[in-house]
Amino acid sequence: MDVVAEVSQETGFAGESGADKIQERLQKRHQARVEDAERRKEAKESQSVAEEKGEYFYTTFNKERASIEELLSSCSGADRAAVTQTLEEATAKTVQLQKFLNDSMLFLKQYDLRQAQAALQKLQTSLTEIREEALPKKKFGFRARTKATDQVSAPVSATPLPDAGTPADSGSTKVDGAAAPEQCSFSNMDSVSLTKTAEEIQKRDVLLTHLTNCKVRLFGAPSTLHLKHIDSCEILCGPVSSSVFIDHCTNSTLAVPCQQLRTHNTTDTRVYLHVTSRAIIEDCRGVSFAPFSWSYPTLEEDFTVAGLDQNRNNWNQVDDFNWLAAGTPSPNWTVIPEVDRKTNWDP
Q: Are 215 and 190 in contact, with CB atoms under 8 Å apart?
């Protein structure tokens, strides 16, 4: 009995109570090991699933990209009708590839995502360049340029200006009796009001370039929207089915829904945005964001045509490629305070 008492005294337990506590500790340790093993197993399975998804994405994305590049290569030396048809097919494939990328963003690594976005932008640029080279717009004459100048002193309105410079010739032309869609555009204009209707846009690429102090209304659902060299303008656009590319924009207000926004070399610009992926800025400063708030009668129909989810808006999820400090917000963009947000867009 004395030995038992001594053992109990050394272990700090007394009789059966001490044995129960030892057994309880052993069970807790065993349970902790089991739970840790389960966590490791789940993490490994999750990583395996992500790797499988990533591998499927890379294979599919590269296959579709190569298919589009092959289509664009076939435009060289082809007649106008064949080029028109090929570009339409390439544009549709590019839109689908953009949607595939957007749906895969949740499991892609940041580097791989940027690589895929850069590849898509390269395809978009190639599409635009080939379209401009193979399907050039008609040259406009002195009368059209004069009319654009006359509009400088005209009041701002939402009515179309069919004879104002370049846009007068940005519609479709006849090829073998059929209408061939071309890029819609406004360019080289100052202090005018510009409008494109949904019928004019018809899911085409839209290019706005070298505009100063203009008010632009784009109704309908463009395929892509390119803004270049924009100064002191207000540009409102319907849902864009793929990407919006902004380059060298300053002191302007933009409102647009889209799948993807890429903004370069832009300063002091307010963007009212609906975006289903994440906005990207690079070499920008003084850019501010708020939710898209422009409205017009057929807006919901145009969202459907563009294939955008109205309930998914990442307007304040912005990636700054020039700001890599983890955990510290980029100083190059801000959120527009609610009290300062514009809600009345009437001309």
A: no
